[in-house]
Amino acid sequence: MTDAPDLASDIVTPDPEAAQAYRIRDWDEVAGPAADFRTFWEDRAKELEWYEPWHTVLDDSNAPFYSWFTGGKVNIVHNCVDRWLKGPTRNKLALIWVSEDGQETRTFSYFSLNREVMTWANVLKAMGVSKGDRVTIYLPRIPEIVFAMLACAKIGAVHSVVFAGFSSDAIKERILDSESNLVITADGSWVNGKVFELKNIVDEAVRHAPTVENVVVVRRTNTEVTMDPLRDHWFSDLETLPIAKGQCSTEVLDAEDPLYILYTSGSTGRPKAILHTHGGYMVGVYTTLKYVFDLRDEDRWWCTADPGWVTGHSYLVYGPLLNGATSFMYEGGPTYPYPNRWWQLIEYYGINILYTAPTAIRSLMRFGEAWPNRHDLSSLRLLGSVGEPINPEAWHWYHRVIGKGRCPIMDTWWQTETGAFQITPVPSMPLKPGSGGKPFFGQEAEVLDEKGNPVPDGQEGFLVLKNPWPAMMRTLYKDPDRYVSTYWSTYPGKYLTGDSARRDADGYFWVIGRTDDVIKVSGHRLGTAEVESAFVSHPAVAEAAAIGLPHEVKGNAIHAYVVLRVGYEPSEDLEDELRQHISRHLSPIAKPDQIDFVAALPKTRSGKIMRRLLKARALGQPEGDTTTLDD
Ligand code: PRX
């Protein structure tokens, strides 16, 4: 996916007339010098409502534990919901949702969104949830996931959303780590016309997670489930109780009070619990969406991500609501039942901005232009891409076939850790297909060599960010040492992204991929360690190594090397069984494309698996330095 782009010649310039109309015409116009990022962010924070103002914009006295808008009192839900209840915006659509089969549409004005969130918040309180408590949410892409997240935030509880494709082991691990007392789930979810049995998966997880006292279940697929009378409650029963009715006030919080934790894969060991807070995250997400996508009152915004990932958190749930926009949410994927589903939805609902992942674009490209060409896509104004590098071929297809050459593509680079866009174009600037553009206002990025010196333009190196930003994670939940060692110790004072990149002479950044043991499969982030530990939990497996190899649609596919225990023989059946095992014990997205049975794995003398060597061999590339290789 990193086909060396011709940096110099492939430039798409904006239509001059359209460029005039965009909110941002010039980076410097709003931002001033990057060094003055405090003023820039303070001005943006003033565009939102605070119960009490901050006394310090940025407190860096305990860096890298930064604190933003210190002293301020706020609640993100006040700015997502409460503020829009005054005046005409109370009747504006906040959310339009369409079911996977396309048969059901549910719409919520800001007024009715508030009612739903209050009901959920009342229910949570009745379940004993209070400020600071963690709540695990394992729900499909249905409006209730939005309500549940906002309800937690409203009462000051900390949500921990687990993507509803993860296995019971993965949920269990996240429940135990976050010490959640409450899990919110559904009977099932619809995945390409079939039911994925969420409640059964939660039952299995909760069996080994004794902290859980209550499980709230939303009915979605009418699947038969077992309800533990003391522990499990249908939401449809709870919402009819008197306690669920009536007003629920929004908790007044400190700007730095935690909003959520979101587990994401790292290079080693268990997933990292990224912690975000109310004040800074709110300002960062609000601002980036407003400026980069030039969001207008009349827009219908569609972020196709699942709320189980950070893109869904920031740009399906919080960002659009903070901007008082109308957010579109579709339960299904891009190609079911036919590869025109998305184009049909864009036409029918008049979507103006589509924000999706390169993997989805590549999978749709395979079906040819006839599918999108059957639909009127003229409502589209802007397009977006996120999650992995977009190859220029897919970029141009997206631009020409979907955007009809009119819609600039915002290729936004960011991470679970950064909370909001960090490197991105704005619509008025010339675009270079495959490049994420330039650091966002107030941010400065660098590409460094191993010693920490900037490499010359055009050369590959380690991507770092230089300035703190409001939406940055505050720490790793319960693991501040790992926060410092993972992100801030390699180049003291600079944030290590874990990505490799190049900068060109025009200051555009070209992200190449991860430099650590993180694999991006269809834009989803997986750690080699998680895949390997899922493998060795199978009785036949003694040892395993996982690597990512380039894949035409998925970006990367998992390729695994497995050493079997004595008494087991390689076979196709065993290969299938292992694939199913990974799917069940980690997630279907982690299913390896290929499994090779080997006698031994290449290791360093200190016993570390040399994945780099496996990758080089698989790709037929030079093996590099192998002096540390054990016999
Ligand atoms: O490698 C980069 C890639 O996704 C990683 C972050 O993954 P995650 O925390 O799951 O967040 C994904 C959605 C924000 C990054 O370290 N990545 C993300 N966006 C881009 C990207 N790579 C290239 N171009 C992008 N636009």
Summing up helix and strand content along with how strands pair, one would put the structural category as: alpha/beta
In terms of DSSP E residues, the strand content is 15-25%
- Sheet with the most strands, sense and barrel status: 8 strands, mixed
- Total beta-strand segments: 32
Mean pLDDT: 94
Number of helices: 19
| Span between termini | 34 Å
In the sheet with the most strands, the strands line up as 12-11-8-6-7-14-15-25
Low-confidence stretches: none
- List bound small molecules: adenosine-5'-monophosphate-propyl ester
Which outline best applies? globular
Question: Helix share of residues?
Answer: 25-40%
What's the Cα radius of gyration? Answer: 24 Å
Give structural notes.
With 631 residues, the protein is an alpha/beta fold. Helices cover 28% and strands 24% of the residues. The chain is built from 19 helices and 32 strands. The strands form nine sheets. Strands 12-11-8-6-7-14-15-25 form an eight-stranded mixed sheet, with helices on both faces. A seven-stranded mixed sheet has the order 5-4-17-16-18-19-20, sandwiched between helices. A hairpin with a 7-residue loop joins strand 1 and strand 2 (67-70). Helix 5 packs across helix 6 and helix 7 packs across helix 8. The longest helix has 17 residues, at 110-126. It is globular. The two termini are 34 Å apart. Adenosine-5'-monophosphate-propyl ester (PRX) binds at residues 264, 310-311, 386-389, 411-416, 436, 497-499, 511, 514, 520, 525.
